[in-house]
Amino acid sequence: MKNQKMYEPDDKMIYLIRDNYGLLQSLGCFGISLGFGDKTVREVCDEQNVDTYTFLAVVNFTINGYKGFDEVDRLSISTLMQYLRASHSYYLDYALPFIRRELTAALDENDNLARLILRLYDEYSHSIRNHMQYEEKNVFPYVDSLLKGETNDTYDVETYSKHHGQTDVKLRELKSIIIKYLPSDSHHNNRLTATLYDIYNCEEWLDQHAQVEDEIFIPVIRRLEQKSKQNDVSVKISNMITQNPESNEVLSDREKDVIVSVAQGMTNKEIANHLCISTNTVITHRRNIARKLQIHSPAGLTIYAIVNNLVDISSVKL
């Protein structure tokens, strides 16, 4: 039974489990061990090195669909990665094989329809395994590289988002066939009913897992990409300045005036009128500036002017 309550850091962890026993598996995926007594969510998370804000964001979302975690920057990517990786391990290494064994025990292996049910389940398992292995091979290493400050021009989270499609069509077919196939003898009927119950539980869990990826993980990685791109621009500007440490000294006052005019969006003719010089002189100044700074574009000169305090960014025509 689920309790439609928004849980907070000072709530006791035992209350979360008492109200929502389905969270037991989530605790394991976060790496939280049982035996925490009457400690609060915050205390348990702090002791077991789990980010409290991220834990509650996932818990409240999976229980109540709550998306109020508007402070995306507060979400811990390392905690999310631990949760997703452990979820994959649980589903691939335990849940899928367990249900396969249950189906085998519940079905008559000499029955053609039973063999078809097992084949349909194996096809479903294969599609889920491929989907999760794609994430393990492509998505998670990509995020790890972003966390290290490395950029990747050949992959982004949008590529993953498009790949992140539905994989539950075969499972719906399987459930439908089992319901229609249920044998009449009580022994097989009971075992198959129990297996069907486990399949429904796993389907619900997998759906929650996919929603966490779509609604929490992907937005967080989009934000990380934005930061990475901003940092990359900052590094390029820093390198540009480092490569020309004496540039501000070797520029003449008139050349600085030309750079300021370029940053303000003026054409060569407008600069000439503004500085009361000829257009040819402006062209000569710009040629000398490019030689000294190794910067040729108006955008590059604008950045140079801003970082060297020649202009205020508010006066720049972007």
TrEMBL record:
It comes from the Bacteria. Residues 244-309 form the HTH luxR-type domain. It holds the Pfam family GerE. Gene3D superfamilies: Winged helix-like DNA-binding domain superfamily/Winged helix DNA-binding domain (1.10.10.10). SMART domains: HTH_LUXR (SM00421). Keywords: DNA-binding, Transcription, Transcription regulation. This is HTH luxR-type domain-containing protein. The lineage of its organism: Bacteria, Pseudomonadati, Bacteroidota, Bacteroidia, Bacteroidales.
